[in-house]
Amino acid sequence: MSSMKLVDLEKKLIAVARANPPSDRVPLAFEKRIMALIKGRPVQDAWAVWARALWYAAAPCVAVMLLFSGWAFVESAKTNQTPTVDLAQQLDNTLLAAVDQNNDASR
Amino acid sequence: MERTEAELIAAVLKGDAASFEPLIEKYSPRVFATARRYARRESEIEDIVQEVWLKAYQKLGSFRGEAPFEHWLMRLAVRTCYDFLRSHQRNRESAFSDLSEPEDDWLERFIHQPGAIKEDADAAQQLVQRVLQQLSPPARLVITLLEIEDRSVKEISRLTGWSVPLVKVRAFRARAEMRKILAKIAKDKYL
H helices within chain B, ranges in order? Predict the structure, then answer.
């Protein structure tokens, strides 16, 4: 088959496809089926997704907070039995450790 | 009194899901016609249309109302069809050796009396489907939109989300791909 014929065949097949558009028939009660699927599903917007993510994150955060509170309580109870330096002093020492080291070095 | 599209969309966004139903009734014929261009089995076509409507409902918040709802929906439909083609590209037929007898006859008549053949013949339609099924997903999409639906490059760019130069490149490649397939038919049959 010559290339001219191939081009003609291509044109003819495109013409066939154009001349026979697909049917736009919709199955019976199709919209009811879709409505049944989406019923109860809220429309998602960015704020709703963000709010839901925050709510999901709240429970693990509370759990972690309770765990650390319990741990801190137990630790403080132990240190009260053998009183040395209080928690505030320990925090101060930790935060200012770098400054103290600098001061020591400059002396 | 019948509510306008904008009113229906606003109602859906406020949580009234039932207001979505008139939109489905109105636009389903167009979505079905689009899906039938890319899928053959009725079950696959229904799956595509269902997915389009579920996406439309979920993403309705992103519809800004600057363009008609139909344009926004058709973009969604075309992209869903493209995803379908990509996920089913392994199903593309691999050989032309099984051309049916009517298809064979139609081709024969085309060679000998090109002016006398009918465009609405079932065999011709089957042959078109066979050729389209052989194309890669981007080639099939671009040939359908550009050549069969006669859309402009700009329109295709809007529908597919591809840039204008990309549409042109893919159109060029798609035509070459189609000619290669037709040449293969001719070779199998006449050489």
Answer: 5-13, 21-38, 42-58, 69-87, 101-112, 122-134, 137-142, 153-160, 164-190
What is the average per-residue pLDDT within B162-177? 95
3-class DSSP state of B134? helix
B40: phi then psi, degrees, rounded to nearest 5: -105, -45
Distance between CA atoms of residues B82 and B161, nearest Å = 11
What pTM does this model have? 0.72
Q: How far is A24 from chain B (nearest CA, A)?
A: 4
Contacts A–B by Cβ distance under 8 A: 113
Residue in B closest to A38 by C-alpha: B54
* Contact (CB, 8 A) for B85 and B163: no
Give the tens place of pLDDT for each residue, B70-105: 999 999 999 999 999 999 887 665 545 577 888 888
B6 min Cα distance to partner chain A (Å): 16
Question: Which is nearest to B172 in space by CA: B134, B137, B146, B133?
Answer: B146
Tokens of A22: 């697909």
